[in-house]
Amino acid sequence: MLDVEQNRRARKYSSGEIIRRVLWMFAQPLFRFSPRPCFGWRRFLLRCFGAKLGRNVHVYPSATIYFPWNLEAGDEHDHTRSDFPLLRPPITIGPEAWICADAFVGPAVTIGEGAIVGARAVAMKDVRPWTIVIGNPAREAKKREITQ
Questions:
Q1: How far is residue 119's CA from residue 105's CA, in Å, rounded to a whole number?
Q2: Helices marked H in the chain — which ranges?
Q3: Residue 92 is inside which H or E element, if any?
Q4: Which DSSP category does 119 fall into?
Q5: pLDDT of residue 81
Q6: How many helices (H) and strands (E) in the chain?
């Protein structure tokens, strides 16, 4: 049987760890409210608290980090290229097409004329003209017909 009282009396963290946690609590606003492109500042701040971060690691201000002294991230994370280039293939959306709320259209995808990508759908392949796609992955639900 679990002894709750003994568990409550047990020392969970060392004094050093408690001090680091309190200091990190005061430093978190410097991390959280830093401008988005200030990756170097956040790396510096995390390293001050013991994080082991490689070159060019991008930690965004929205990241939640409880124990930075336990964080390790190596140099460059792409497994196929050393320069990890930013790829920006075009997304083409035809006339009279509609991309609904929270839908995702992947890179190099063409949404045909009059097509509809349903709410929260994930279109990773081209969508034919005048069709309605739904789901993840997006699949054709029906043809779009205009009636007036």
A1: 11
A2: 4-9, 15-32, 39-48
A3: strand 92-93
A4: T
A5: 67
A6: 3, 10
Q: What is the helix (H) or strand (E) element at residue 131, kind and residue range?
A: strand 131-134
Distance separating alpha carbons of residues 45 and 68, to the nearest angstrom: 9
Give per-residue pLDDT as tens, 60-104: 999 988 889 988 887 767 656 666 666 678 889 999 999 999 999
User: CA neighbours within 13 Å on the CB side: how many for 58?
Assistant: 8
**Mean pLDDT value of segment 103-127:** 95
- Token pair recorded at residue 43: 């790396």
Check: CB of residue 21 under 8 Å from CB of residue 13. Answer: yes
Q: How far apart are CA 26 and CA 20, in angstroms?
A: 10
Residues in the chain, overall count = 148
Q: What is the pLDDT of residues 5-31, one digit of tens each?
A: 887 888 888 888 899 999 999 999 999
Q: Give me the amino acid identity at 33.
A: F
Q: What are phi and psi of 46, to 5 degrees?
A: -65, -40
Q: How far apart are CA 75 and CA 87, in angstroms?
A: 19
Is residue 120 within 8 A of residue 91, CB to CB? The reply is: no
pLDDT of residue 5: 85
